[in-house]
Structure to design on (180 residues):
C-alpha cells in the first residue's frame, strides 16, 4: 500500500531508509528520459515524495525524526530534488514544506561549543556529534540561490556548524560536484 511507505509505523517498514529506494529510482528514471516508462517512474516517485512532505513535516516546522535523521534523509532527497529541478519537472527548493523542515534545524541549533568552535544540531537518539550531515545545510544554501532569504539562512546554519562539505570523520560522500 502507498500509505505504508509514508506513514511512520513500526509495524510496516524500515521507515527512515525507504527514501533511499524511491529517490534512487527517480534519479535513474531521469537519467534515461527517453525510456518509454521514465515519466511514469518519475511520477510514481513523486507520489512517495509528496506523501513524505505531507505526513512527515509538521505545520510548525520539524521533520518527523530528529535533526540528524532529517539531515540524513535530506542528503538523498536533495540529489533527487536537484534532478527534478534540472529536468524542469518541479523545483522543491522553493517548496514551503521542505523549507520549513530545514529552517527548523537552523532555528534550533545548540549554543556555541568551544570544543568544535561552533554550534551543533540538537542530538537525540542515535544521532552523531558534532555535526554529522550538516553539509546538507550548505548544499541547500547553494541549491536555493533563487530564494535569497532561505539560502541565507541555510548558509548561516552551515557556517555555524563548521562548513563541512562531507561527513566529519567519515569517508567521501561528497556529491558537491554532482549537485553544483
Amino acid at each position: 500500500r502507498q500509505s505504508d511507505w509514508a506513514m511512520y509505523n513500526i509495524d510496516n517498514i524500515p521507515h527512515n531508509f525507504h527514501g533511499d529506494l524511491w529517490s534512487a529510482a527517480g534519479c535513474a528514471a531521469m537519467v534515461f528520459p527517453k525510456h518509454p516508462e521514465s515519466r511514469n517512474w518519475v511520477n510514481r516517485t513523486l507520489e512517495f515524495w509528496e506523501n513524505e512532505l505531507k505526513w512527515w513535516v509538521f505545520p510548525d516546522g520539524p521533520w518527523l525524526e530528529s535533526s540528524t535523521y532529517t539531515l540524513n534523509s535530506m542528503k538523498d532527497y536533495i540529489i533527487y530534488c536537484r534532478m527534478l529541478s534540472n529536468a524542469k519537472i518541479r523545483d522543491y527548493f522553493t517548496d514551503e514544506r521542505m523549507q520549513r523542515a530545514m529552517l527548523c534545524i537552523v532555528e534550533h541549533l545548540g549554543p556555541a561549543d568551544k570544543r568544535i568552535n561552533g554550534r551543533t544540531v540538537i542530538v537525540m537518539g542515535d544521532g552523531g556529534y558534532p555535526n554529522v550531515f550538516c553539509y546538507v545545510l550548505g548544499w541547500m544554501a547553494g541549491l536555493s540561490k533563487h530564494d535569497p532569504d532561505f539560502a541565507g539562512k541555510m548558509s548561516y546554519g552551515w557556517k555555524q556548524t563548521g562548513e563541512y562539505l562531507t561527513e566529519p570523520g567519515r569517508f567521501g560522500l561528497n556529491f558537491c560536484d554532482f549537485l553544483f
Observations:
- Residues 67-86 form the longest helix (20 residues).
- The mean pLDDT is 82.
